[in-house]
Amino acid sequence: xxxxxxxxxxxxxxxxxxxxxxxxxxxxxxxxxxxxxxxxxxxxxxxxxxxxxxxxxxxxxxxxxxxxxxxxxxxxxxxxxxxxxxxxxxxxxxxxxxxxxxxxxxxxxxxxxxxxxxxxxxxxxxxxxxxxxxxxxxxxxxxxxxxxxxxxxxxxxxxxxxxxxxxxxxxxxxxxxxxxxxxxxxxxxxxxxxxxxxxxxxxxxxxxxxxxxxxxxxxxxxxxxxxxxxxxxxxxxxxxxxxxxxxxxxxxxxxxxxxxxxxxxxxxxxxxxxxxxxxxxxxxxxxxxxxxxxxxxxxxxxxxxxxxxxxxxxxxxxxxxxxxxxxxxxxxxxxxxxxxxxxxxxxxxxxxxxxxxxxxxxxxxxxxxxxxxxxxxxxxxxxxxxxxxxxxxxxxxxxxxxxxxxxxxxxxxxxxxxxxxxxxxxxxxxxxxxxxxxxxx
Amino acid sequence: xxxxxxxxxxxxxxxxxxxxxxxxxxxxxxxxxxxxxxxxxxxxxxxxxxxxxxxxxxxxxxxxxxxxxxxxxxxxxxxxxxxxxxxxxxxxxxxxxxxxxxxxxxxxxxxxxxxxxxxxxxxxxxxxxxxxxxxxxxxxxxxxxxxxxxxxxxxxxxxxxxxxxxxxxxxxxxxxxxxxxxxxxxxxxxxxxxxxxxxxxxxxxxxxxxxxxxxxx
Lengths: 441, 217
Prior knowledge:
The complex is a heterodimer.
Chain A: H1 5-15, H2 21-36, H3 38-49, H4 73-81, H5 85-98, H6 100-111, H7 132-157, H8 162-180, H9 188-211, H10 215-280, H11 285-303, H12 307-311, H13 315-329, E1 333-339, H14 346-366, E2 370-377, E3 381-388, H15 404-415, E4 419-424, E5 430-437
Parallel strand pairs in A: 1-2
Antiparallel strand pairs in A: 2-3, 3-5, 4-5
Helix pairs in contact in A: 1-2, 4-5, 5-6, 8-9, 10-11, 13-14, 14-15
Chain B: E1 5-9, H1 13-23, E2 28-33, H2 36-46, E3 50-54, H3 61-69, E4 77-82, H4 87-95, E5 101-103, H5 108-119, H6 127-138, H7 159-169, H8 174-181, H9 185-201, H10 205-213
Parallel strand pairs in B: 1-2, 1-3, 3-4, 4-5
């Protein structure tokens, strides 16, 4: 490294006119430091070490979707302040005794947005496990008991209004909590909880009115309000209807356009690329037909084939992949027909290798441009037939240098307890039959 | 042998032109149609020997044409032609009454052979179709679930029929199958016709279920 230094500097000086000395010195110094190495290491260390102290932006003040105890206000605040959630919680609890804490908590709950999915603020040092839901419930219950105990005392001292108010508050809290966690209404439990909350709040209101003796008045007012509300709903019904309809249409349009984008992306990556390649290779007939064939297979698989064939793991998938490979490497078009299917095990993988060898053999020696591949999976056996309509040969007079079929195919099969048979005659084409018995399982 | 009178139904002008060019003078073209209504009208007017029918057509698919006209024109033979190798398409069009199924990648001479064979009243099995048949009839082969009012023979392939189907799937021609099994070509053809009849008439639940689910897993 150091040895090359002068050369670099020398070149630099030769290459540049002397009028530009500043930049060339800069280059040399840069190389020199790099050569020594130590400087760079120090720099990197500082660069990495720096951010935790203030350089990185604070996480936004949002309420996490998981790891909440109550509404996630404390957790979110703690993450924002980079403090332990426990400290924030204790602070809230202490403040709550004076009443301010409750108000602050409520305000924060109202104003803090819920974190976008996947953008959870780091949950701090306290890792809340999957049991949070249950813990959340437990804490709510404990809070409830404490609150009702406190209320009981207050009720005894006087205010008959408090119980109904508490009921209303509890009902509202339940409704809010359900709607707040953006759970879908399709879950029955959420719907029941919502209904319960509404009943609780309504009961509280009725109780409140009854205990203040305003029930009769309220009934009149309620009836009037109800009539007005129904009237308003009836009058504006078309608008609501249209709103709902347009929302549905929007969603359908969005789904359609997403689907179209996905299809377009796929076609772009596959078909359009192949068409471009075909145009470029327009003179080379073999290349064109190979490109077209490969693309056809790919598109066909995308459109029609079952998932197992596309993703592999079974015999049919193995055969499809193998045919694709052979067609890509050799000028042979293979039309595979697969009946039945089975998950791949070691024996089937070996049978697949033997089948590939038979196909390659047909491609190399038969002189045919197409071959039929038929394979059948039954409970007792897996059979493979590779048929070509090429020139064929006399199996008795195979020269020793053509050992592909004998060793690679027949040898493999015999080791697995199967059989391999080659039927051929000059001018008649060749058929290789491979049979592998299946272990009863 | 007189040249069979052929009607081509395909929504792609290029395919129609290609088929005409490939079959050339060996058949008489009496008409062509790009969609279901014109096809129904044209076939009614010309009553061809063979209709080459695209499976995917605007206005209901080739099956709609078949179902409209099959009872009305029993003398017309149908050969389905498609780019699709999807099993449900193949089985559906065969069950609707087509005498055979070839893909559009078929070579000119093979297509001519298939048209002639269908015109003579035979059936045309491509290796792939034979594979589908074996797959369909193998699915839960002799289940003891007896279905009332059906001929149990329709739900099973005989050993010989299975053999013929296997050889077809392996790429053998009728003549090769005949010499391999020591039977006449006519017998091979009758086995193939029987299999097709079974495929069309069997109302085995497995068959339809297989066709519906097999390629859509």
